[in-house]
Amino acid sequence: MSAALFTPGPWEDDGGAAYFNRTGRIYAGRRLIAEVGNAAPWQEDWQYNAALIAAAPDLYSALKSMAEFWAYGMAKPEGAEPSADDNKRVEELAAAATKAIAKVEGRTS
Question: Which of the two residues, 96 and 50, has the higher pLDDT score?
Fold first, then answer.
């Protein structure tokens, strides 16, 4: 697989620090990646959009790792039993995906 061409993570949203403007900003370190906003006071979805954008590198990494592991598993002979390392890797991949999804949903884990 080729390397990602986007700004490396982690990306973090500022949690609406610019709330008076109804915006959220997403940063990679000090670099501004995106600004998400909505001028309509009854529409608060900008916060969820900011969380989704901020989690993009984590989601990408988890999905890429899963795809690579799946390709590895498909290359094994039919009927081959997974090794202890394979089982450990599955657990690590599931944990990474769960963590990325929790970030999108505003949970810590």
Answer: 96
